[in-house]
Design brief:
By secondary structure, this protein is an alpha+beta fold. The protein has helices at about 1-10, 20-55, 70-75, and strands at about 65-70, 80-85, 95-105, 120, 130-135, 150-160. The protein has two domains: about 1-55; about 60-160, Immunoglobulin-like (Sandwich), CATH 2.60.40. The protein has three helices and six strands; from the N terminus they run H-H-E-H-E-E-E-E-E.
C-alpha cells in the first residue's frame, strides 16, 4: 500500500516548514492541485469501468423470449405465434424490438422476407414481469415451403425514462393481440 501513498503525495510532497516561505506555499498549492487531479482521474476511471460493464450487459440480453403455438382465439384471427416476453432485469422496459427468424425444417437459411418490418412493442414491462403477445407469421421469401421452425430474438430493449410514471395496471389476461404491419 506504499505505492498508493506515493501516488497520493505526488512529486510535490513537502514537509511542514516554519517559517512559511513563498516557495513552500507554491509547493503546497501544487500538492493540492496534484491530489485533485488524482481524484478526477479516479472518478473518470470509475465512470469508464461502469460504462464498459453496462455496455457489455445491455438490457436486451436480460430479456427472455419464448415462442409457442398461440391459443385458439389468436389463431382464429390469423395470429398463430405466441411470444412470452420476460423482463429478467432490474429495470423497467419502455420499448422492445423483436426479430423473428423462420427456417424451413432441415435447413439453416432464414426465409423471413428482407422487407418484413420486425415488431416493436411500446409497452411497459416491469422487472420480473412476463407478457404474452400473439403475432402473425412473418412475411417469407417467395418459394419457401414449410413446415417451419420459428425463433425470436430481442433486437433491442430501452429502459423506461425515470420521469415517466409507471401507473398502468398489469397487462390483461388473456394476451392482447398486436397487429404488426
Amino acid at each position: 500500500m506504499g505505492w498508493i501513498r506515493t501516488v497520493w503525495d505526488g512529486p510535490f510532497k513537502t514537509p511542514q516548514q516554519q517559517p512559511i516561505t513563498v516557495g513552500w506555499a507554491l509547493l503546497k498549492l501544487f500538492e493540492t492541485v496534484w491530489r485533485l487531479l488524482v481524484i478526477v482521474v479516479l472518478l473518470i476511471a470509475a465512470i469508464a469501468i461502469y460504462a464498459w460493464y453496462d455496455a457489455r450487459n445491455p438490457l436486451s440480453s436480460q430479456v427472455g423470449v419464448g415462442l409457442s403455438p398461440a391459443p385458439i382465439d389468436c389463431v382464429a384471427k390469423g395470429w398463430p405465434i405466441l411470444a412470452r416476453i420476460e423482463n429478467k432485469s432490474s429495470k423497467t422496459i419502455g420499448e422492445l424490438s423483436l426479430k423473428f427468424r423462420v427456417y424451413p425444417q432441415g435447413t439453416s437459411t432464414d426465409v423471413v422476407s428482407y422487407d418484413y418490418l420486425q415488431p416493436d412493442l411500446h409497452n411497459i414491462i416491469r422487472p420480473g414481469e412476463v407478457l404474452s403477445w400473439c403475432f402473425r407469421m412473418p412475411d417469407l421469401d417467395a418459394g419457401s415451403t414449410g413446415p417451419y421452425t420459428v425463433m425470436a430474438d430481442v433486437n433491442y430493449a430501452v429502459e423506461l425514462p425515470k420521469d415517466v410514471p409507471v401507473t398502468s395496471p398489469p397487462q390483461p389476461k388473456p394476451p392482447p393481440i398486436i397487429e404488426v404491419k
